[in-house]
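As noted in the main text, all predictions were made from sequence alone. Below is one such record, for Protoheme IX farnesyltransferase.
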Amino acid sequence: MGRVKSFIELTKPRLSAMAVFSGSAGYVMARDPNMSFSMQNYLGLLWLTLGLSFVGAASNIVNQAVEHKLDKKMDRTADRPIPSGRVQMGEALFFGHICLAIGLYILFHFFRPEVGYLALFTYVTYVFMYTPMKTKTALNTIAGAFPGAFPILTGWVANSNNDFHTLPQTEWWGFFPFAIVFVWQLPHFFSIAWIYKEDYQRAGYKMMSLYDETGKQAVILIFVGTLGLMAVSLMPYMYKMSNGWYFLSACILNAGFLCSSVLLLINRERFMKQYFYASIIYLPLIVLALIFFPLTTTP
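Prediction:
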């Protein structure tokens, strides 16, 4: 059982669950808001969840296999299955590629090809672009935001092949939730980089915090990122994807999130973790608002 537990741990269940939630949310958002969810939609959601779960697991497993030497240098990652010796790197790579094959098979088999290609592109950008960039440039956070945001777009594409999304006004709506998740990641990961700056420095990761002794740069980036997120979050309402209840929800969430970023200007040492936790609360709530408050009349 110990070995099984180690292999499950390699998949990073909580991180994979976030990607699956994002993809599933995109799928539900893409429904025709004037029609009820059919049994076919529920089955599609099930297959999408399974496919994205396997692809997400593969990304996390291979990422850990590639970074296991660096993980050994950081306190918070030293006990992961590979650096701790509970799983060999070759075993992890084999397991990761099996998961990738299963996930892609499901997505290509049950959905149109674009869905499988988006999932594959997510895997490739995460493992072969973002992962090596972490030790080479502080721009890795921006690069990593792409594979982090692709699942919600993948879910949207999986369920947007209907008459409602052939309308000129609606065919680009899927990029609004993608943009929200993309921009959200920037201040979120800037806060993580500051909180764990010593760990990242010890492992040789080129995070923004490496060049920011005082934390002022981190606070500025987080504050600007938060303002950008506020603007992007209002796009679904502005372009008639969501209704007034979404607008009200977004305003309330944005006000709370902005307050948490303002507190950083007062005392970054004290409030950085609070901002991090606020970001974790913000994303699922804004996504749920997108799901529950669509504009139900045809634009």
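The mean pLDDT is 89. The CA atoms of residues 32 and 164 lie 6 Å apart. These features were considered when defining construct boundaries for the mutagenesis experiments described in Section 2.9.
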